[in-house]
Specification:
By secondary structure, the protein is an alpha+beta fold. The chain has a domain of 45 residues. The chain is 38% helix and 9% strand. A two-stranded antiparallel ribbon has the order 1-2. β1 and β2 form a beta hairpin. The chain is elongated and about 60 Å long. It starts with 6 loop residues before the first strand and ends with a helix. The mean pLDDT is 77.
Length: 85
Amino acid sequence: MIKDNLNIAYDLSGNLLLTIPKSYIQNADQDTLLQSVERLLKSAKKKVTSRSNWQGDSAADIVGIGESGVTNGSVDHDSVLYGPE
């Protein structure tokens, strides 16, 4: 019952965001709440670790299609894109 009302999401950096309604924290039995959170986290971990390849990922269609002469793009990312300061 509690598990269905908890919410898991991810921010833009991939960090897990867990939302537990305040009323549940105030009213639920602590052991039940902790067990629900544990089950939810295990489920989220399975989803993250089960993606061992790019299958089904829409980003796979565009990864590697571009070419450039830049060999150190991550080091000089801003200067390559925006020019020298």
